[in-house]
Amino acid sequence: MKLLIVEDDADYAAGLKAEMEALDHRVTVAATGPAGLTAVEREGFDAVILDCMLPQIDGASVARRLRAGGHRLPVLMLSALGRSSEKVGGLEAGADDYVVKPTPAEEIDARLKALIRARGWTGGGETDTLAAGDIVVSPGQHRAWRAGEPLDLTRLEFALLAELARHAGSYLTRAMLLERVWGYDFEPTTNIVDAQIRSLRRKLTVAGGEDPIQTKRGVGYMLHR
Amino acid sequence: MASLRGLTLVFLGAFGAAVAGAGYATYSASHRAVVTLVDRRIEEVSRALLDETRPGDAAAILERVRLFAGRRETGDIGFELEDARGRWLGGNVHLARVIPSGFSTLYRRDRIVGLTAGRALSRDAGGGLRLITMIETEPVDGYNTLRLRNYVLGFGLIALVVLAGTAGFSLLIRRRIAEVRRTAEAIADGDLGSRVPVDPAGGAFAEQAVSFNRMLDRIALLVEGIRNVGGDIAHDLRTPLARLRSRLTRLVEAAPDAALAQELEAALAQCDEMLGMFAAILRIAEVEGGDRRAGFRPVDLAELAVQIGETMADAAEARGGRLVVAADAPAIVTGDRQLLSQALLNLVENALAHGPAGTMVRIAVAQRGDTVLLSVADNGPGIAPADRAAALRRFGRLDASRNTPGHGLGLPLVEAVARLHRGTLALGEAAPGLVVTLTLPRGPTG
Q1: pLDDT tens digits for B328-351?
Q2: CB contact A150 to B (< 8 Å)
């Protein structure tokens, strides 16, 4: 992917750039909001990583100007503070996602990929059925099937499967699943995501078939397409 | 230190006594003055009347009485001449009562026409005769009533002014105290931006409010400084830790043999533990900042408890124990769903971590009056009452739990969340085991 990092902390930007490049991205760094906006106008990027606290104009204003300029590319906000008010402000300004520094590069990578994949969706919404391999999930009916056989899932397992199916083919990190399935903005000491994935796996494979969920250490989980 | 109410009552009591004392003193002084003047006049008139008659000559004395009664300057004086046996011999007044020799006081009950109060002098007129001379002590009719009315009006008005002043004054003080109290409570609840309103008209209270606010500014600055230091340290240490973590993650994958991979896994776990600790420090700072109150919404604790029961059931079973949830009816509070979830998760994690394998944990949600009780009970070793305060202290790990994972920030975070919701956290005895109860104000129903 071709990424733009808008970040005034040169050390942090350089570190993140190196890490993202190690994950096979091409990265450009802009130190200020106006420089970032100019860069987006000049060349096409696949996504922007935008720091919340920038000199001159802040991250939320940059996001707002991007949207006002008609740019629909995914914007991921980076925050040093992680205050909920800051998060709400960033999302309202038009950012797509929000992470608190220091977030591992793998997490940022997974989130950006999920955002880009989500851009490919063609409207529809929750009532449409989701399919991933031989798994079908119907959020509207709150039911799921594997190879035509209905699955008996708890509410949490269902929500987890639906989220994985919605992003089938992309890795979802633990933090992303905690946010989207549980609604948590924190990581509990107990690995509750792993526990739910384990029991979901059990139920998906009880009638035979390959394990459809792939785990990538330090990154997260992916449902095969 | 006396209370404001007590002080006011003592003041009003003293004031009342002073008014009554002053009234009585004035009344009795003027009364004594009148009596003294009247007595002197009676003495003079009666001596003048008897001076020019022979002692014992009743006819001559009565002649003098007639003369005196007719004179303008002595026309208001009553005379009566009695014989030795107290029989009325003559005079312009008939006193029914026998009075002793010397001065006496006359009252309305003596039934002398036109006299309500007076003085009388009975003196020897020679030959066993007694001359009684009487004068009114009331210069006008109903003088006593009039005097009483003057006192009541005069002193009553003063009393009224003082009472109104006291009431107004105490109202003013009460209002100022209430303003200061509200501010102090807001500060205690974590709103460090709250200040005492300053009366633009100035005055002592305004000066006090300004000083108080300056003190609060200073405290806010210091607290902010401490918070920033804690936050900055946690934040600055988190960045290199995160780098270390991602490097370790890559190393685990590339490890050539299982033994090394296991070592690296252990290092990774320690990394996560430290990151967890910093996250908890930053989280407590965020909660104590109070900003999250802006996002408060109605939250059903029963529903939340059920979700956490479902989430943590596996973790409990993995330790051979069980997690049950007793939350039948909706229990709505106004709060932050994420923080309440985190608090409850922390409590369940604590119960599982500190109990032996096979620990039973019970989450219960109940309404009591205007509060909602959220409790987590276990049948583990519990915490001795003497150790409970230490358990709530930051990094306050008990000796018994030194060997279990955790950073000693779980309960302090839960307590900060309780405080943010204007609730309380209490540790109790579950006999056997520990019961931790969060008491939160009930939110709007429906």
Answers
A1: 889 999 999 999 999 999 999 988
A2: no
User: pLDDT-based confidence at B355, cuts 50/70/90?
Assistant: confident
The alpha helices in A147-214, defined as continuous H runs, are: 155-166, 174-177, 192-205
How far is it, in rounded angstroms, from Cα B199 to Cα B184? 18
A12 pLDDT more than 50: yes
B269: burial class by Cβ within 10 Å (0-12, 13-18, 19+)? exposed
Residues of A (83-112) whose Cβ lies below 8 Å from B = 83-85, 88, 101-106
Enumerate the residues of chain B whose CB falls inside 8 A of the CB of residue A99.
Answer: none
CA B402 to chain A, closest CA, distance in angstroms equals 17
Q: Among all chains, which residue has been given the structure tokens 């390959």?
A: A210
Confidence of residue B446 (pLDDT cuts 50, 70, 90): very low
Report all structural domains of chain A as residue ranges with CATH numbers, in order of start. 2-119 (3.40.50.2300), 130-223 (1.10.10.10)
Q: Does residue A34 have a cis peptide bond before it, meaning omega lies within 30 degrees of 0?
A: no
pLDDT of residue B1: 46
Give ipTM to 2 decimals: 0.84
Express each pLDDT in B264-300 by its tens digit: 989 988 888 888 888 888 888 888 878 888 889 999 9
CA angle B156, B158, B164 (to 5 degrees): 100
**Interface touch A80/B249, C-beta < 8 Å:** no
What is the reported pTM?
A: 0.67
Strands of A97-100's sheet in order across: A26-30, A2-6, A47-51, A75-79, A97-100
CATH of domain B204-289: 1.10.287.130
> Is CATH 3.30.565.10 the classification given to domain B295-441?
yes
Phi and psi torsions of B40, nearest 5°: -65, -40
Closest residue of chain B to A86, computed from CA coordinates: B291
User: How many helices and strands (H and E) does chain A possess?
Assistant: 8, 12
Give dist(CA B205, CA B209) in Å, integer: 6
Instruction: Report d(CA B270, CA B273) in Å as an integer.
Output: 5
Residues of B in contact with A110 (CB under 8 A): none
pLDDT of B397 reads 63
What SS3 class is residue B271?
Answer: helix
Nearest CA in chain A to B353: A190
CATH number of B4-144: 3.30.450
Name the residue in chain B with its Cα closest to that of A22.
B250
Which of these ranges, A55-64, A115-124, A190-199, B75-84, has the smallest mean pLDDT? A115-124
User: What percentage of chain B exceeds 70 in pLDDT?
Assistant: 95
Q: Looking only at Cα atoms, what is the longest distance across chain B?
A: 155
- Residues of B in CB contact (< 8 Å) with A are 235, 238-239, 241-243, 245-246, 249-250, 252-253, 276, 279, 282-283, 286, 289, 291-292, 294-295, 307, 310-312, 314-315, 318, 337-338, 341-342, 345-346, 349, 352, 405-406, 410
Three-class DSSP category at B139: coil
Cβ-Cβ contacts under 8 Å, B242 against chain A: 102-104
Distance, in Å, from the CA atom of B271 to the CA atom of B250, rounded to the nearest integer, reads 14
With CA atoms as reference, the chain B residue closest to A179 would be B338
pLDDT at B120 over 80: yes
Peptide bond into B55 cis (omega under 30): no
Query: Does residue A120 belong to the interface with chain B, where contact is any CB pair within 8 Å?
Result: no
Locate the domains of chain B by residue range.
4-144, 204-289, 295-441
